[in-house]
Amino acid sequence: MTGPVRVTLKEPDDFDGWRDAARDLLTAGLRPPEVVWTVEGGEAELFGREASRAGASEGASFSVPRQFVDLAKAVVCHSDPERFGLLYAMLWKLKANRKALEDRADPLTDRLERLAKEVRRDAHKMHAFVRFRELTEADGQTRFVAWFEPDHHIVRREAGFFVRRFANMRWSILTPELSIHWDGENLTEGPGATQADAPGGDPLEETWKTYYASIFNPARLKVKAMLKEMPKKYWRNMPETSLVAPLIAGARARELEMIDRAAAKDGLASALEAERRIEPGGNLRASWEALLAEARSCTRCDLYKCGTQTVFGEGPLNARILFVGEQPGDQEDLAGRPFVGPAGQLFDASLQAAGIDRTQTYVTNAVKHFKFEQRGKRRIHSKPDAGEIEACRWWQEQERALIRPPLTVALGATAARSLTGKTVTISRAREAPLTLADGSECWITVHPSFLLRIPEEDRRAEERARFVEDLKRIRLRSEELAGS
Questions:
Q1: Which of the ends of the chain has fewer CB neighbours closer than 10 A, N or C?
Q2: How big is the CA angle at 155 (ends 150 and 159), to the nearest 5 degrees?
Q3: Alpha carbon of 228 to those of 125, 183, 394: distances in Å?
Q4: Cβ–Cβ < 8 Å for 75, 101
Q5: CB 408 within 8 A of CB 400
C-alpha cells in the first residue's frame, strides 16, 4: 500500500506552487481524497509518497473561470489547514462542470467563499490598523516600523498596498510569520519578529492623540460596532486607543447634553435629529476644515505640479448621498470647486430631473488635481492613471470617513476604482449596489462627461435618460435607507 500522494508547498500562501501541482495532479487523474497537502516545515504525513512532476502531461490541461483564480488567490492565504485540499476539490468539480462555482447552495462553494471573505477582512484590518513609528537607524537614516499580527497569511499579498501608499518612505512591517521591508526602490522579506522588536511611541503620537480626542464624536459612538470593526487585539499597536476607555466613559453624558440642548431649542420632537443638526458646527466641521487645509498642500503624486489648486469636495457634512467623480476639469481647476463646468451643468440638470437637491448632497472627485495636456492655449483633460488614483484615494476615504454617507455614488470607472480598489465595468455594475468595506452601499453609473462625448443626438438623449433613471433609483434607495 503506497498511500496518498503528498504535495509539499514552499510557503503557507504559495498559490503558484499549489496551481502547478494541482494542474499535474488533474492531468494524472488523481482524485481529491488521493492527495495530501502540506507546507514545508509543517508536520508531515505518516504515510504517503511525494508527488513528482516528471510524468506530467501539458496537453491535458483545461482553463478555469477567472472567478476561481481570484477566489483561490485569496483562499490560499487563509490559515485553515484544509484550504489547499478544498481548492483542489473545487478544481476537480470545475473540470466536469465549468459552472460549478455558480451553485451557491453547494457547501464547498459556500465554505470557500467564507474563507476568501475572512482573508479580505483580515487584509482590510491590516490596511486600517498598521501604525508606523519613526526610528532613526545607525546610519542616521529614518525608517518607519510597524508591528502587526494578522489572523491569516496575508503579508505578502498586501505588501503592494503599502508600497503604493508609502512609496517615498523607508519602512518595515514586522509580523510573527515574516517581515517585509521597503527601501524606496526594493521590497524584501525577512524572518518573523516579536512585538519587542518594534519601537515604542514617538513624538508624533502625542499630536495624533490630541487630534483624535478633538474629533471624537459621542453622538456617533456605537461600542459594539466599534469593537467589531476594531477588535481589542489591535489596540496595543494604536496610540489613540489608550484614549478610548475614558472617551467612552464620558460619551453618554456628552451625547445627552447635545440632545438636551437641541430639544430645548427646537422641541422634543426634533431631538432625535440633534446629531445631524449639531455636527456641522462642531467637531465634524472642524475636522473637515483641517482635512481641507491639509489637502491644499498635498504632494502625494506629481499632479500637484500642474494643477492650479486642489479641488476638494463640497456639500453638507450630514449628506445622505455622496457623489464621487473622476477629477476636476479646466473650469473646476480655476474655480476650486467640483462639477462647475459643462459636465457639472449637465450633472445639476440631471439631478433636478431625478428629484435630487444637489445642495443636500456631498460632491467630490477621486483625484483632486487637474491632469491635462497643453495644446496651444487649451488644457485638454488627460485620464488619471492607476498610481494617481491610488495616491489620491486617501483623501476620498477621509471624506467618507467623516461624513459616513449611507449611500455613495461612483460617477464613472475612475471613481468606481477609487472606491472599490479594482477595475469595474460600468455596464455590468450599474443595475445593483455594491457593499463597501464599511458596510455602506455604493451605486455605480456613468460620468456626465461621457454623455457630452456622444456624437449622435438620439443616442445622447437615450443615455441621458438612462442616467436620470439611475439617479432616480439612487434617490428612492436613499429615502428607503433614511426611513429604515
A1: N
A2: 135
A3: 11, 34, 23
A4: no
A5: yes
CATH topology of domain 301-483: Uracil-DNA Glycosylase, subunit E (3.40.470)
Dmax of the chain from CA atoms? 85
Q: Domains of the chain: which residue ranges?
A: 5-120, 128-197, 206-277, 301-483
Here the cell at position 197 is 522588536
User: Are 205 and 277 a contacting pair, CB within 8 Å?
Assistant: no
CA dist 198 and 293 (Å) reads 32
Give CA separation, 31 vs 28, 99, 120, 323, 424, in Å: 9, 19, 29, 51, 36
Q: Contacts by 241-247 with C-beta closer than 8 Å and gap 24+?
A: 242/209, 243/209, 243/212, 243/213, 243/216, 247/213, 247/216, 247/218
CB-neighbour burial class of residue 424 (10 A; exposed 0-12, middle 13-18, buried 19+): buried
pLDDT along the chain (484 residues), means of 10: 82 94 91 92 51 45 83 95 94 89 88 94 86 81 87 94 88 92 93 82 51 50 54 55 52 55 53 44 69 85 86 92 95 91 94 95 95 86 88 90 92 94 88 87 95 94 96 94 76
Contact yes or no for 334/296 (Cβ under 8 A): no
Q: What are the beta bridge partners of residue 362?
A: 322
Helices (H) and strands (E) counted in the chain, each on its own, are 17, 15
Cell numbers of 370, please?
487637474
Determine contact, residues 294/211, Cβ cutoff 8 Å: no
CB 154 within 8 A of CB 167: no
Cell of 38: 502540506
∠ CA 436-441-443, nearest 5°, is 105
